[in-house]
């Protein structure tokens, strides 16, 4: 492991990234001086290019290949195996460490000690076969990386086009070749009615993925589980927007559901409003939130929004939805690659 770095030797900006256990494998949020880095790298242990760095605390066993960049790593929490590549090359070791079962009692460890690493066993073929296995798995990793890039580019494309559509820099034409007409100023509260969940709240806390009706909650989890409760299922006024009254997060919902949280607002469209258009427009609104206010009533309902004719609303929303469908398809392909990789990882080494 690297030499100990003390907190007063780090800063929020600087020359050399210092990776702690929380930033391991991500962007560094701390830095050390170049002078200290060069001194410690010369006098103390430092990984070689290609060594596999391992998280030894927190989420134990996360792995990152050291690519030789100027960086420093938190002692004892981030370690590496000083491997000479004679019997096991680091490329192969990187994948082994993703599935290895560490030699500990009880199966759960809070810290990866040197003794645990040294006593952990795994099967290893000859170097020539190790290289073939690595090259095969690396091809899948490259495809996963490419797939992530495709998805990110689609998201950027949607965001760019949506901004142009809602600012009217880009407009659809009617069947007669002319613009649809002038956009009207409305308040969100005029476009959307809200329902406070009461009878839609699920009473059971037991969920089973074999049940059909999803239970929605406020917050990041969104789909909490699935229930077999039949009373009070929301299904007659779909689609709707689910609005989290605390975080102001929104979700577009076009399937029957039960509500779990009273912090939710169920937003439905008023006459002359295409709700998917309103949902997309809400993603670009600027606002400030604070405290434990009822944010829909106090912050969102009064916001003014430009609304075109129902035909143009539909064209815009359906166009953006087509990009959403493409993103969904590409995400499904990504999951297939990830599942394929996991299957191979757990079966190639048996």
UniProtKB/TrEMBL annotation:
Keyword entries, A-Z: DNA-binding, Endonuclease, Hydrolase, Nuclease, Restriction system
Superkingdom of source: Bacteria
Coiled coil (residue ranges): none
Gene source species: Flavobacterium restrictum
Entries under InterPro entries matching the protein: Restrct_endonuc_typeI_TRD, Restrct_endonuc_typeI_TRD_sf, Type-I_RS_S_subunit
Pfam short name (any one): Methylase_S
Transmembrane residue ranges: none
Name of the protein described by the UniProt record: Restriction endonuclease subunit S
Family (UniProt): Belongs to the type-I restriction system S methylase family.
Domain Type I restriction modification DNA specificity: 2-155, 183-336
GO biological process, one term: DNA restriction-modification system
Entry's Gene Ontology molecular function annotations: DNA binding; endonuclease activity
Keyword hit for DNA-binding: yes
UniProt cross-references to Gene3D superfamilies, sorted A to Z: Bipartite methylase S protein, DNA methylase specificity domains
CDD domains, per the entry: RMtype1_S_Eco540ANI-TRD1-CR1_like, RMtype1_S_LlaA17I_TRD2-CR2_like
């Amino acid at each position: 492991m690297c030499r100990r770095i003390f907190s007063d030797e780090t800063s929020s900006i600087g020359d050399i990234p210092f990776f702690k256990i929380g930033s391991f494998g991500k962007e560094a949020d701390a830095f050390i001086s170049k002078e200290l880095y060069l001194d410690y790298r010369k006098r103390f242990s430092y990984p070689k290019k290609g060594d596999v760095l391992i998280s030894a605390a927190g989420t134990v066993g996360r792995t990152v290949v050291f690519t030789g960049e100027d960086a420093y790593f938190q002692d004892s929490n981030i370690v590496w195996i000083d491997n000479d590549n004679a019997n096991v090359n680091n490329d192969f070791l990187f994948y082994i460490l993703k599935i290895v079962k560490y030699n500990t009692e009880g199966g759960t460890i809070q810290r990866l000690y040197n003794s645990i690493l040294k006593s952990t066993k795994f099967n290893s073929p000859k170097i020539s076969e190790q290289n073939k296995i690595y090259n095969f798995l690396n091809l899948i990793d490259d495809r996963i990386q490419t797939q992530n890039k495709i998805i990110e580019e689609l998201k950027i494309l949607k965001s760019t086009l949506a901004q142009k559509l809602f600012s009217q820099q880009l407009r659809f034409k009617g069947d007669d070749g002319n613009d649809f007409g002038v956009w009207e100023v409305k308040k969100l509260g005029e476009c959307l009615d809200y329902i406070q969940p009461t009878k839609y709240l699920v009473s059971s806390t037991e969920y089973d993925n074999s049940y059909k009706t999803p239970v929605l909650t406020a917050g990041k989890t969104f789909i909490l589980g699935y229930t077999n409760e039949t009373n009070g299922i929301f299904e007659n006024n779909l689609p709707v927007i689910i609005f989290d009254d605390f975080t102001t997060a929104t979700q577009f919902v076009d399937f029957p559901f039960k509500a779990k949280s009273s912090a939710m607002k169920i937003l439905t469209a008023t006459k002359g409003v295409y709700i998917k258009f309103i949902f997309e427009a809400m993603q670009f609104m600027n606002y400030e939130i604070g405290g434990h206010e009822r944010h829909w009533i106090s912050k969102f309902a009064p916001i003014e929004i430009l609304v075109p004719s129902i035909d143009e609303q539909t064209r815009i929303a359906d166009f953006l939805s087509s990009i959403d469908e493409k993103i969904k398809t590409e995400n499904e392909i990504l999951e297939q690659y990830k599942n394929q990789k996991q299957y191979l990882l757990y079966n190639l080494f048996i």
